[in-house]
Amino acid sequence: MKHTRRLATRAFRAETGEFLAEGPQAVREALTVPGATIEVFASDGGTSQHPDLAEAARAAEVPWHVVGDDVMASIADTVQPQSAESESANPFQQTSTQQRGGPRPGGF
Questions:
Q1: Does the pTM exceed 0.85?
Q2: CATH code reported for the domain at 2-91
Q3: Which residues have a Cβ under 8 Å from the Cβ of 25 and sit 6 or more positions away?
Q4: How far apart are CA 74 and CA 88, in angstroms?
Q5: pLDDT for 23
């Protein structure tokens, strides 16, 4: 969770090549890119409101974490957190580690 919270800073996003996709539609789109979604965090309400997202995550073998509203608020970049967020890798961005020949985030 600490890693996910650090994605709130631009420097950490640039270093890792990862970002948070906030909201059900953003998570839905992130899940359509093979290998891009690292994990999904959802509230109880988000899980029950969007069973299609939970199924898409299972089908893509992406971990789905049901977390409390307090956790959603701590990782959200918005005042009113959405019901689902995904930690995703940006397939179009090379991180400083990758430029030095290190591994790519998300395994691709």
A1: no
A2: 3.30.1330.30
A3: none
A4: 17
A5: 85
CA–CA dist 92, 57 (Å, integer): 22
**Size of the chain, expressed as the number of residues it contains:** 108
Angle at 103 between CA 106 and CA 37, to 5 degrees: 5
User: How many angstroms separate the CA atoms of 49 and 99, rounded?
Assistant: 41
Sorted by where each begins, the domain ranges of the chain are 2-91
- pLDDT for 2: 86
Q: Does the structure show a pLDDT above 90 at 61?
A: yes
Tokens coding 41: 């965090």
Measured between alpha carbons, how far is residue 60 from residues 16, 64, 89 in Å? 22, 11, 15
More confident residue, 106 or 66: 66
Place of tokens 């959405």: 82
* Structure tokens, 85: 């967020």
How far apart CA 62 and CA 96 sit, in angstroms, is: 25
